[in-house]
Amino acid sequence: QVQLVESGGGYVQPGGSLRLSCTASGSIFSISTMAWYRQAPGKQRELVAVITRGGSTHYPDSVKGRFTISRDSAKNTAYLQMNSLKPEDTAVYYCNVVQVTTASANNYWGQGTQVTVSS
Questions:
Q1: Cβ neighbours of residue 117 under 8 Å, at least 6 residues apart?
Q2: HSE-CB for 98 with a 13 A CA cutoff
Q3: DSSP H/E element including 35
Q4: 100 or 21, which is more confident
Q5: How far apart are CA 104 and CA 119, in angstroms?
Q6: Measured between alpha carbons, how far is 95 from 88 in angstroms, rounded to an integer?
Q7: What pLDDT, on the 0 to 100 scale, is given for residue 20?
Q8: From 9, 39, 41, 63, which residue has the greatest number of CB atoms within 10 Å?
Q9: In the chain, what are the helix, strand and coil shares in percent, each to the nearest 5?
Q10: How many other β-carbons are positioned within 10 Å of the β-carbon of residue 41?
Q11: 99-110 burial, b if ≥16 CB within 10 A, otherwise e?
């Protein structure tokens, strides 16, 4: 079992920055990818960033060039640096971890952290 705890959300004006963190605990072996998703009211949950075990990153066009995902394996933590924030970035942001072993593949989610971008 893996537990994820997110932090760093809050209120920020357009053009501002926030950094989210996600720390994994429990059975933290065999973690392959870590990712950030977001979901706004009335909208589908969407992927905003993913980082592989090897450090490769991927972003959708909506956040490319503004968001950066990173991970610190020693601390079992992933980060999402968000710059040049826009009102449309307002959402609950969720950390996601995929754990793959020879026996199974498991998907874990954090509790979510609210990000509000408004003037």
A1: 12, 13, 14, 16, 85, 86, 87, 88, 89, 90
A2: 11
A3: strand 31-39
A4: 21
A5: 46
A6: 19
A7: 98
A8: 63
A9: 5, 55, 40
A10: 7
A11: beeeeeeeebeb
Which SS3 state, helix, strand or coil, does residue 111 take?
A: coil
| Token output for 91 | 């959402």
67: Cβ contacts below 8 Å, ≥ 6 apart: 36, 48, 49, 59, 80, 81, 82, 83
AA letter at 21: S
Looking at the DSSP assignment, which residues form a beta bridge with residue 22? Answer: 6, 78
pLDDT score, position 18: 98
Res 31: pLDDT? 82
Confidence of residue 25 (pLDDT cuts 50, 70, 90): very high
- The mean pLDDT of 71-98, rounded to a whole number, is 95
DSSP 16: -
Q: In one letter, which amino acid is 41? A: P
